[in-house]
TrEMBL record:
InterPro entries: AAA+_ATPase, ABC_AA/LPS_Transport, ABC_transporter-like_ATP-bd, BCA_ABC_TP_C, P-loop_NTPase. Keywords: ATP-binding, Nucleotide-binding, Transport. GO terms for molecular function: ATP binding; ATP hydrolysis activity. Residues 6-254 form the ABC transporter domain. Gene3D superfamilies: P-loop containing nucleotide triphosphate hydrolases. It comes from the Bacteria. The keyword S-adenosyl-L-methionine does not apply. GO terms for cellular component: plasma membrane. This is ABC transporter ATP-binding protein.
Amino acid sequence: MTTPALALRGLTKAFGGLVAVDGLDMAVRPGEVHGLIGPNGSGKSTTLNLISGLLRPTRGQVLLEGRDVTGQGAAARVRLGIARTFQNIRLFRHLTVLDNVLAATYPRTRAGLLAVLARTPAMRSEEEAARRRSLELLDLVGLGRRAADLPGDLPYAQQRLVEIARALATGPRVLLLDEPAAGMNPAEKQELLALIRRLNREFGLTVVLVEHDMSLVMQACDRITVLNFGSRVAEGTPQEVRRHPEVVRAYLGTRFADPAAREARSGA
Ligand SMILES: Nc1ncnc2c1ncn2[C@@H]1O[C@H](COP(=O)(O)OP(=O)(O)OP(=O)(O)O)[C@@H](O)[C@H]1O
C-alpha cells in the first residue's frame, strides 16, 4: 500500500472537559482531494489546526508522508510541506496583495527575511525570483491585476483566493483549505472548484477540503471523511458518503442523497 500523504492516528484534542477531536483516524492518499465534513462544532477546524501544528494534540499522531510530525511546530510543518488557509481570512491588511504572497515565500528563501531586508546582491536576485513566482501564483488564482491593491480593496471572495496564493507560495505538498467557498456566489464557487482541480491535477497537490457547501464538496473530492462530535462516522467516495444512512439522516438531508435511495424511501 502506498504511504498516505497525510495520516492521522488516534488524534484527540480536549479543551478542558470538551473533547473536540476524539480518536480520529484518517488517511489522505497522495494526490487526492479529501473532504472533511460534518455539522457545526464537529471538530473540522480543530483537526486542521492539529494537522498544521497550531494546536498540539492531547493524544495521537500526525504523519506527513509517513514521517511523524506531531512534535513539530507550525513553522516547521510549513517547511515540511503543509500549508493552509483560514476560515477567518488572515491577511496583512497594510501590505499589498503581492506583498502578502511574497511574505509567505520567505520560509523557502535560503537566508530568510532578515537577509532580504538587508538587501545583499544575492538576496536581491532571490527576492526578484520570489516576486516573479508570487505574481505567477496571483495569475494562477486570477488576481494578477490586483497585485498592487490592498486586500481590503478586494471583494471577500477574492481575499480568499489571495489566501490560497499565499499558501501556495510556501511550496506545499499538502494544502489544507478551511471553508474556502464561504461568502462566494455560485459563479465564484465554480471558479474555486476549477482552481482546486487544477492545483490537484496540474500541480499534483494533495488537498484537504473543509467546506459546508455540499455541492462543491461532492464535485471536488475523491474521498470524504465525515465527522460528528470529533469522531469519524463515515468515509468513502462522494457516492458512498452521500448514500450512507447516518450521513443522510444527520448532515446532508435528502437533497444530497442518492436519487435511487430517495425514490426507494418515498416509495416511488
Ligand atoms: N480553543 C478552543 N477552546 C475551547 N473550545 C474550543 C476551541 N476551539 C474549538 N473549540 C470547541 O471544539 C468543538 C469543535 O470546534 P471546531 O471549530 O473544530 O468545529 P467545526 O467542525 O470546525 O465547526 P464549524 O463548522 O462551525 O466551523 C466546538 O465545540 C468548539 O466550541
